[in-house]
Request: fold
Amino acid sequence: MDRNKYLYINTIGCQMNVYDSDRIATLLHPLGYRRTDTPGRADLVVVNTCAIREKAEQKAFSFLGRLAELKRKRPEMIIAVGGCVAQQEGRHILTRAPCLDLVFGTGAIGRLPRMVARVESRRCRIVDVETGAEIDEFEYPQGGAGEGAVSRFVTIMQGCDNFCTYCVVPYVRGREMSRRPEEIVQEIEGLVRSGVREVTLLGQNVNSYGKKEGWCAFSELLARINAVPGLARIRFTTSHPKDLSEDLMTAFRDLDKLCNHIHLPVQSGSDAVLDRMNRRYTRAAYLSKVERLRRCRPDIAITSDIIVGFPGEGRADFEATLDLIRTVEYDSLFAFKYSDRPNAPAARFSDAVSEAEKSDRLRKVLDLQESYTLRKHRALIGTTACVLVDGPSKRQEQGETGAGIQWSGRAADNKIVNFTALKEDLSPPPDLTGRQVRVDIEDAFLHSLGGKMIVREPSRVKGEKIYAA
Ligand code: 5AD
Ligand code: SF4
Reply:
């Protein structure tokens, strides 16, 4: 039996990488690896990289620089790089980061245990950036790492066929492939048995789920998941506006477990820019879908991604983006300065926007959005939110709160809610993790809401206290 060894994973980038990091931890468990939060203590460090923007790539290389220092003190430490930068760079990454023992691509995770075992015994260097033509169902985690979590990601598809001209994903994650609906439902049933209450379905473009393979439509998959007993909430990300179907809009009206939140990245409010981005929808088509979504589910929270400073984005184009933000009034936004990606066609487009102009536009978008986010949060003061509790809030863990116990969770519309449950109401204080509770919203901040949990009178139900909404 192997002694316990320590694994440190640095996850950079999107939820897909968070999910892959969980898979990595699960797969390395049988080799004796347990996760640690301290890189200096690790026997194996995995850097799960992101290539979406230059900044994310730089983050990976600067962390590798720090690891090289650690390895000088502890030469037995194994350093592995995975994710999109590994897939993109392949063996070239060894020259840029000589401390590396292992480079594995986004389709090589299933082979990782074998590779790690080989590096452990032979101290050789391995590069594997092969991509298989199929999804290997057996690679998906079935419990193990991340046990005790209330909310889990479930990948329903991989890759992307859209080829937006700024984006590296189709080149590093490959073609779109969807998992069988039965496999997905089975995985979710298993997660529910281990205590999970909420799943977030992951894919680069979930709206085109199963189209190539001839599986059921995404809305049908949602209906099947909605029927899983014991599951409380369903979320998904990301949706491409061009593929947002009428069926999916009505699913928001009809499926009781589907949370009232959609991330619907618009990228730009200018038709000319959308065309050069190869997004294949117009501003008018996008706005009409937003309107229809709101008709199906009036309380739906809508969030988006915006790229500022795409090549050729003129003043008027940028104004059109600001105007679209004013029209939609998003709940929140992620905004990015356009960043050239060597693989993506837009890197060769003319009329680059200067860095100073990009920074200025980014600031304008963020300032504008801030006012809407705050206004929307303030409007929730005095309402009751149904919150799925993630656990004690950070302040609580640090012992900073007074009389009340501070908990943290998310409302159905994805807003973070920190709330107190007064000690005198709850003695002994129960662990609320994983429960759905009702919270009176009393405070509004830019990134969260604050409030108090509603505890019904204990005498009402045979001395039992009810927390559930
Ligand atoms: N530059 C800036 N932002 C980008 N995104 C994707 N590629 C780039 C790029 N080259 C943004 C898009 C996408 C989000 C995940 O990242 O807004 O929706
Ligand atoms: Fe990239 Fe466009 Fe695919 Fe999203 S839809 S992953 S932005 S190519």
